[in-house]
Automatic annotation (TrEMBL):
<dbReference type="InterPro" id="IPR036812">
    <property type="entry name" value="NAD(P)_OxRdtase_dom_sf"/>
</dbReference>
<dbReference type="Pfam" id="PF00248">
    <property type="entry name" value="Aldo_ket_red"/>
</dbReference>
<dbReference type="InterPro" id="IPR023210">
    <property type="entry name" value="NADP_OxRdtase_dom"/>
</dbReference>
<dbReference type="InterPro" id="IPR020471">
    <property type="entry name" value="AKR"/>
</dbReference>
<feature type="domain" description="NADP-dependent oxidoreductase">
    <location>
        <begin position="15"/>
        <end position="344"/>
    </location>
</feature>
<dbReference type="GO" id="GO:0016491">
    <property type="term" value="F:oxidoreductase activity"/>
</dbReference>
<keyword id="KW-0560">Oxidoreductase</keyword>
<dbReference type="InterPro" id="IPR050523">
    <property type="entry name" value="AKR_Detox_Biosynth"/>
</dbReference>
<protein>
    <submittedName>
        <fullName>Aldo/keto reductase</fullName>
    </submittedName>
</protein>
Length: 353
């Protein structure tokens, strides 16, 4: 795989990134280390995590994923310098008081969170430090509409950038990014950075998959024109686009019990648990079978080949899943198949937005 540049930074990474939010919940530490070893052996040099992981978020597993990664780096001296490491500072509390005191995300919170991540990761520097979700009120994680009456901002974007600039100046962070952002947010972060000579965001990490393509409704133009790269997460729609729930549904007696969406009520209450999301996934999954490929291969190839995507974040619980995801690289989708995908989207839109 040819490495790609992230935004205007000098970070060059593989177009597939290993996401790690299952480590510490579904995946124990020895298994996580085996998966990491295998990913590196297969050529992956880009890892993504977050301070709030593992997922689903619980007080008992807060910081567990970063800790597991830190232990792995300690076991493999010299490897850290060969990899691009991304992590995230949690936005304002979403029912997670164990992340920090208070409901906001102050400049001091950003600094303290970074220090905590550095300790857990056992590293001196974070290559890409991302804001996990906006500090201001935005429609995210399945919320459909912006509601100005729910504005809660306490720390301006300018203040957030100044805090991040301090971390960059101190050598603790190389570049910054955003996650779960909107076109307005990306524009403001870039505008203020350029106006005040502050760090410019290199990336936005947003959901992008066959059943959730809202990014193509304007955010893709924003990112293209501003030279900000997309890190696409949930390319398999939280497992819906693997086909494993096609026959059983996500809550039936025969539903697979190992997936996050089946195991955790908090996940089912978000966008992935909507009946419309499963109905759309079934259509895409059958389309894949009609074209002699697995549903996962179609879903991954869609992300791997879209011009909007710089690097696709894959999350796995086994080495076999990792191999399946990596082996999908290089799959091409014919113009006729892409047209069929768009016909389904025209009919069913984006039910997991």
């Amino acid at each position: 795989m040819q490495r790609i540049q992230l935004g205007r930074s000098d970070l060059r990474v593989t177009p597939i990134c290993l996401g790690t939010m299952t480590f510490g919940e579904q995946v124990d530490e020895p298994t996580a280390h085996d998966i990491l070893d295998h990913a590196v052996a297969r050529g992956i040099d880009f890892l993504d995590t977050a301070e709030m992981y593992a997922v689903p978020a619980r007080k008992e597993t807060f910081g567990a994923t970063e800790t597991i990664l830190g232990h792995w780096f300690a076991k493999n001296p010299g490897l850290r310098q060969k990899l691009t490491l991304a992590t995230k500072v949690a936005g304002p509390s979403r029912g997670m008081p164990w992340v920090r005191e208070g409901a906001g995300m102050t400049a001091a919170d950003i600094v303290a969170s970074c220090e905590g991540s550095l300790r857990r990761l056992q590293t001196d520097v974070i290559d890409l430090y991302q804001i996990h979700w906006p500090e201001r009120n935005v429609p995210a994680f399945g919320t459909m509409y912006y509601d100005p009456t729910k504005e809660r901002t306490q720390t301006s974007i300018h203040e957030q950038l100044e805090a991040l600039a301090g971390l960059v100046k101190a050598g603790k962070v190389r570049y910054i990014g955003l996650s779960n952002e909107t076109p307005y947010g990306v524009h403001e972060f870039v505008r203020l950075a350029e106006q005040h000579d502050l760090p410019r965001v290199a990336t936005v990490q947003n959901v992008y998959c066959l059943i959730s393509r809202a990014l193509e409704n304007g955010l893709d133009e924003t990112m293209h024109r501003l030279d900000v790269s997309l890190l696409a997460y949930s390319p398999l729609g939280f497992g819906l686009l693997t086909g494993k729930y096609d026959a059983s549904g996500i809550e039936g007696p025969d539903a697979p019990k190992d997936g996050r969406i089946a195991r955790y009520e908090s996940v089912r209450k978000q966008r992935w648990g909507r009946p419309e999301a499963l109905a759309a996934a079934r259509r895409y999954n059958q389309l894949a079978r009609d074209h002699d490929m697995t549903p996962a291969r179609l879903a991954l190839a869609f992300c791997y080949t879209k011009w909007q995507v710089a690097s696709t974040i894959i999350g796995v619980t086994t080495k076999a899943q990792l191999d399946e995801d990596l082996d999908a690289w290089g799959t091409t989708l014919s113009p006729e198949l892409l047209a069929e995908i768009d016909r389904i989207r025209w009919e069913l839109r984006d039910p997991a937005n």
